[in-house]
Specification:
The chain is mainly alpha-helical and 426 residues long. It is 77% helix and 0% strand. The chain is globular, with a radius of gyration of 21 Å. The two termini are 35 Å apart. The N terminus is likely disordered.
Length: 426
């Protein structure tokens, strides 16, 4: 069966709308890298102002920016349900999100309550607009495994957003929420395992077979993995009220689900029908290997209380999950989505014959994407090692900065080819 069956490309939004999200994302990856270069102490403890600014540059600035752009594109195409008023939604979400993330980073770095207050307003506007529009679209959407993954991911984003607002209000000196430790734990869990992981899993069910020419995921996995993970997340949020043994069992269930997804994806990729080299496949493989490493690190911590209580343990999990898994997979998706959109809109605008416009592979030079992957891979390795040998952290940040710059240049090269061959932003 065709992997593109049921896709509604005629409902795709204008190229410029998801593109404004995609082109903003690498700038925040660069900002995160520069924080490490300027102050390697960003990786000394997860609670330092620098570490908190770094984390939100990656999660809000890079990951959320790219993933909201992907949702804007995929909801009409995969779910057959466009966002209402997409132009207004794009601008009212992307601009406040970018400015709000910068304000939040400034608040952490300067310990300035007014910066947190500004961030609350801007991020509140940006996320409220997008979440409301996405909710309308997802209610109307035709259900399939990817749509269910999107629904649960967007619901997790909503919960992450509400919890994050309460924590930011506390930083702004406006309100001190009850059960702050539980709110922080739930914010982290729904943000990383709910919003990021569930969206990647749901989207993978569609894009891995389609773009990587693999067999489809097993039917039972597609039907039950994302709902099962979400239910476990809800129980995990109530973990402070559960017996310790029950909390460990819930975390073990989450780890098993993550491991199952990663191993299944790697197995499908070994059965590709097209065996040509593909750098985006390398990004996905690095992402899946990092997920497996994350589960391994967590498993070791269950039998080693000293390791679980160390400063390095949560930082290592963060580097593996955010940098190794999430940033890698989003890189891989950007290198498929942006060239495809440039080619698709160029063909639609010009009604071009085959051979008269660049192919998807011609939109970005393969050698350039390969170099960016190498910088990213080295950055992941050095930043991981930098947790144990701090002298390596600054070099890791420099490699990450080079990777972010090259990602931005590569995405802009696809836009330049689109424009040079007669494409226009309307």
């Amino acid at each position: 069966m065709s992997t593109q069956a049921g896709l509604s490309f005629e409902q795709a939004p204008p190229f410029s709308l998801p593109l404004q999200f995609f082109l903003s994302a690498p700038l925040f990856l660069l900002a995160a890298a520069l924080l490490v270069v300027m102050d390697p102490a960003s990786l000394a403890s997860r609670w330092t102002p620098q570490a908190l600014a770094l984390t939100h540059a990656l999660t809000l600035g890079f990951l959320a920016m790219a993933m909201l752009g992907a949702l804007m594109q995929m909801l009409p195409v995969v779910a057959g349900s466009p966002l209402p008023r997409p132009r207004a939604v794009a601008w009212l979400a992307q601009v406040p999100l970018a400015l709000g993330t910068l304000s939040l980073m400034a608040g952490f770095l300067a310990a300035e309550p007014i910066a947190f207050g500004i961030a609350v307003v801007l991020l509140g506007v940006g996320f409220a607009v997008f979440l409301a529009a996405a909710a309308v679209s997802l209610v109307r959407a035709t259900s399939n495994v990817t749509v269910w993954g999107m629904r649960l991911a967007v619901l997790s984003l909503g919960l992450t957003f509400i919890l994050g607002l309460t924590l930011a209000l506390m930083r702004a000196g406006v309100w001190i929420p009850p059960a702050r430790a539980a709110a922080l734990a739930a914010h982290l869990a729904f943000g990383l395992l709910g919003w990021v992981l569930l969206l990647v899993v749901g989207v993978a069910f569609q894009v891995v077979p389609m773009f990587q020419i693999t067999p489809p995921y097993p039917t039972l996995l597609g039907r039950w993995l994302t709902p099962g993970l979400f239910v476990l997340l809800l129980i995990h949020a109530a973990a402070p009220g559960l017996p310790p043994r029950a909390g460990v069992l819930v975390e073990a269930g989450l780890s098993a689900g993550i491991l199952l997804f990663a191993v299944t994806t790697l197995r499908l990729q070994t059965r590709r029908r097209r065996k040509l080299p593909d750098v985006t496949l390398d990004f996905w493989r690095l992402g899946m290997a990092s997920l497996i490493a994350s589960v391994t690190v967590w498993t070791v911590a269950q039998s080693s209380p000293a390791w679980a209580d160390s400063d390095v343990y949560p930082l290592l999990l963060a580097v593996l999950f955010i940098g190794g898994f999430a940033v890698s997979v989003v890189n891989g998706m950007l290198y498929k989505i942006v060239p495809f959109l440039a080619w698709f809109h160029l063909q639609a605008q010009l009604q071009a014959r085959a051979g008269s416009i660049p192919t998807m592979k011609d939109m970005i030079a393969e050698s350039h994407t390969r170099w960016q992957f190498r910088f990213h891979l080295v950055a992941c390795g050095l930043l991981t090692a930098g947790l144990f040998w701090p002298l390596l952290a600054r070099t890791g940040g420099l490699m990450l900065a080079l990777s972010a710059l090259l990602l931005q240049i590569n995405l802009l090269s696809a836009v330049r080819r689109f424009y040079q061959h007669g494409g226009r932003f309307t």
